Amino acid sequence: MSKQKIVLDGDGVRRALTRIAHEIAERNPRAENLAIVGIHRRGAYLANRLQRQLRELLSAEIPLGDLDIGFYRDDVARRPGAPVLHASHIEFDVTARTVVVVDDVLYTGRTVRAAIEALFDYGRPERVQLAVLADRGHRELPIRPDYVGKNLPTSREERVNVQVRELDGHDAVTIASANGAPTP
After folding, report:
1. Residues 84, 168: Cα–Cα separation, whole Å
2. Is the pLDDT of residue 80 over 80?
């Protein structure tokens, strides 16, 4: 088992999500035009938490959805085996809304590109914003997050792992070497 460095513990994840929720509320005071959409898997759980906080902050119902981007990936034909699919749930009209797409880690930008493509199958949002728990850099596409929980300077040889209590029993963000060696 590789040695992992904890960069956000449970309290750190909670604080980061609270800060992101406040930033979203500040930039989007018209709650009736706002919606939150998480990218499967962990982004969907983080989106759910953000949506609950935004309901409180804005005293309004904020539509919540989730996207599976399995067939929208640009590497779907090159990946071994079939993609693991989850159902997408967007049961509201995205047209003319500000949709905040939520993901756990932003890396190359390809996942976000696929999510935006999938989102546009549901309509034409007025604006799309991006919220991520961790931004590790190394972009291959010109995609930049609007809201970031933590910037993590990493090498390509490292792996950022996000654990959420809904799936993993606890919240944490860790960095591990891709080859199993400990990270400094």
Report:
1. 18
2. no
